[in-house]
Structure formats: C-alpha cells, structure tokens
Amino acid sequence: MFRIGFSGEILHLSFDLMVAVILYALLRPVDRSIALLAAFMRFACDLILAVASMSHFAALKLLHGGAALDSFSSGQLHSLALWVMNLHGDAYAISLVFFGFACLALGHLLFYSDFLPKALGVLLALAGVCYLFTSFAQFLDPAFAQRLFPVFFIPCFVGELAFALWMLVKGVKVEKWRERALAQD
Questions:
Q1: pTM score, two decimals?
Q2: Rounded to whole angstroms, how far apart are CA atoms 38 and 15?
C-alpha cells in the first residue's frame, strides 16, 4: 500500500508538470512573464514534492533495512520512520508556498484574460492567498494552522474545482484566445 501511495504521488507530480506547460501555453497571450512565473512556481512545487517523496522510501528502509540497522531497537526504528514521514508533511507545506504563488499568478492571468471569466481569476487568487496563509501558519504555529485548515481549505477547493470544471465543460472563448495570441506574435 505504501508503494502504491508513492507511485500515485509520482504520477500526480508528472501530470501536474504537464498541466503547468499547458497552462503556460494557454495563458502566455495574456502576459508571457507572469505565465512563465506561474509555470516555474508550479515546477518548484512539484520538484520539492518529488524530493520529499523520498521520505516514503526512507521510512521503508528504516523498517526493513536489514543488518545495517541492527544496532537500533524496533521502537527507535519506528520513531525514526514516523519522523521521516513527518518531514514529508513539512515539505508539503513548503511546496504549497510555491503552489500558492502559482495560484496567485494564474488568478491574475485569468482575471486579465478576455477568454475566461474574471470570477475564476478571483477564486484562484483567493486560493493562492489561502495556501500561502496556511503554509506560513504551519511554519509559525502548527496548532493554529490545524484549526485554520478546515476554513481555508474551502476557498482552495472551490477555486481549483471551479477552474477545472470550467475548463472541462466550457473551456476558453477560442476566438478571443486566437485574437490575443495573434496580437502577441
């Protein structure tokens, strides 16, 4: 199960890199620099999570490491495995700082595009602020962050879901996008 979870996380990161490239290509006509910034922030988020994913294997190695770990008691190895997994959670909070900035940039791009609704831009920017706030709360006061998370999760969920559903169901106003893309070239 642990290895399946790791594999799922790596698949998620791989697909998210593709999404970053697609969003860059889609939103480049609005503002190339900000679209590039959004893509790089998303890449940074994914890179941090990819490195953090090694904690999954570190925990497995601690629990099934063989003779190299014989000098540690079973309790010590379990404690170390849990500690390594907690590092994954901390790295996830760090990655969400970059994702928050990516959402802010995407929100800006959507708001100033004339081929997607401004409301989606506002929702994604709000999601970005929430990601940033909860991540820094996690760094500064983890207990406070746990109380905030349920409240701040709602705007993140709504913003990302609204954008995903809009793109799946409605998509962009193709003629407006083409006009913008041609004007950029």
A1: 0.90
A2: 16
